[in-house]
TrEMBL record:
<dbReference type="InterPro" id="IPR035906">
    <property type="entry name" value="MetI-like_sf"/>
</dbReference>
<dbReference type="GO" id="GO:0055085">
    <property type="term" value="P:transmembrane transport"/>
</dbReference>
<feature type="transmembrane region" description="Helical">
    <location>
        <begin position="98"/>
        <end position="126"/>
    </location>
</feature>
<keyword id="KW-1133">Transmembrane helix</keyword>
<feature type="transmembrane region" description="Helical">
    <location>
        <begin position="7"/>
        <end position="25"/>
    </location>
</feature>
<keyword id="KW-0813">Transport</keyword>
<protein>
    <submittedName>
        <fullName>Peptide ABC transporter permease</fullName>
    </submittedName>
</protein>
<comment type="similarity">
    <text>Belongs to the binding-protein-dependent transport system permease family.</text>
</comment>
<dbReference type="InterPro" id="IPR000515">
    <property type="entry name" value="MetI-like"/>
</dbReference>
<keyword id="KW-0812">Transmembrane</keyword>
<feature type="transmembrane region" description="Helical">
    <location>
        <begin position="253"/>
        <end position="276"/>
    </location>
</feature>
<feature type="transmembrane region" description="Helical">
    <location>
        <begin position="187"/>
        <end position="208"/>
    </location>
</feature>
<feature type="domain" description="ABC transmembrane type-1">
    <location>
        <begin position="99"/>
        <end position="310"/>
    </location>
</feature>
<dbReference type="Pfam" id="PF00528">
    <property type="entry name" value="BPD_transp_1"/>
</dbReference>
<feature type="transmembrane region" description="Helical">
    <location>
        <begin position="147"/>
        <end position="167"/>
    </location>
</feature>
<feature type="transmembrane region" description="Helical">
    <location>
        <begin position="296"/>
        <end position="317"/>
    </location>
</feature>
<dbReference type="GO" id="GO:0005886">
    <property type="term" value="C:plasma membrane"/>
</dbReference>
Amino acid sequence: MRFFTRRIVFYAITAWAAITINFFIPRIMPGDPVSALIAKNQGRISPDAAEALRALFGLDENMSLWDQYVAYWKLLLQGDLGTSFTYMAPVADVIQQALPWTIGLVGVATIISFTIGTLVGTGIGWRRGTWMDGLLPLSTFFSAVPYFWLALIAISLFSVTLGWFPASGSYDRSMVPTLSWEFIGSVIYYGFLPAMTIVVSSIAGWMLGMRNMMVTVSSEDYVTVAQAKGLKERTVMMGYAARNAILPQVSSFALSLGFIVGGTLVMEIVFSYQGIGYYLFSAVNAKDYPLMQGCFLVITFAVLLANMAADVAYGVLDPRTRQEG
């Protein structure tokens, strides 16, 4: 119980620090978002409205930085993330619109790469010296290729040359988003190339990690005893070796789930995919403080929750982590 209490206190302090940094970093960046907004909408927004816009977006120059910080916490506790400069809409609505696309694409791709990589890594680590070892250099090569370069190659080959898949977008814009098989098929069709890019780039890490752990646990006494009992090879591999080798993988998988919310920023930009990473990029370019803060906050809390889940899962699966030194 003390183990979990300490972890909760640690994450509470971390969340406070993350929120505080999230508030101050955009405000120490050079530039004035209101001036940028007026310049961008020249002719539609009068320069005389600058003071009113600063008050609307919580940038009132008459308020000290501390007062702005306190006001930010009050709004945050009410679930109000502010109003986006760029989209002139509540930040919560913008993020709510972007999150399902990022979670759906990056989440499914991460689960697929984890499952395939772990299973293949288990086989390679258990049957060392076979033809399967040749998969490691190939997969490692693709994992070393930058996301954006691999994405550009996929677009050039499958979209431009072969014309099999669209080069950008998240669904056919002529369709109205509904829970119909036609729309779901369009989403899968448009998301195939981005998902393939993520899977190909990340699968090697799961394979290599599981392979190395399988090599380590294969020489443990409990595996030798299981083999001496005459148990089936598959039973020993999955029930004894893989069951213990997968513990670090579970922890890494939980952390990767937290980073799903952040999406793959470059990948979403290359494919013009309307995920949270794409909106974060546009917010940075437009100096949109509220949207930047909202995106950072959601990503930060997703990572913190994933870390908590990893700690709990590891503490349940391996009781040794809960023992006092």
